[in-house]
Amino acid sequence: PKGNMAFTGKYEFEADENYDEFVKKIGLPSDKIEMGRNCKIVTEVVQNGNDFTWTQHFPGGRTTTNTFSVGVEADMETMGGRKFKAAVKMEDGKLVADFPNYRHTAEICGGKLVEISTSSGVVYKRTSKKIA
């Protein structure tokens, strides 16, 4: 059985795969692409049952926070800063969200936060290690 607070923690970017191909596919502008490359993003997750606060801290002090409850439509923001509505689902212990032009999953795997975004067959994988 999955622990109730399985996602809670602070995670620091460790590695990614297919970053350039993916961000071009979803149409991020090149200045944002440069800014995000090998960016030591710290992801802070607070989970309370089915309620989540998901904050990304970017170097330089910018943060993005998405607050949502599993299965309930919520206001969200993409990595490019676009606002949209989505209902995050829980499937096999993974959080799954359909963003406007990509599908995003997040899971805790061996103590690491593993996030996978898929857009038109391009799979972007980001792994973050737990720091708190």
From TrEMBL:
Statement: the UniProt record of this protein carries the keyword Transport: yes
Keywords from the UniProt entry: Cytoplasm, Lipid-binding, Transport
Xref: Gene3D superfamilies: 2.40.128.20
InterPro entries for the chain: Calycin (IPR012674), Fatty_acid-bd (IPR000463), ILBP (IPR031259)
GO molecular function annotation: lipid binding
Single GO cellular component term: cytoplasm
One Pfam family this sequence matches: Lipocalin_7
Localization (cell): Cytoplasm
Domain Cytosolic fatty-acid binding proteins: start-end pairs: 9-26
Family as reported in the entry's similarity comment: Belongs to the calycin superfamily. Fatty-acid binding protein (FABP) family.
Stated name of the protein: FABP6 protein
Source organism per UniProt: Sclerurus mexicanus
Higher taxonomy: Eukaryota, Metazoa, Chordata, Craniata, Vertebrata
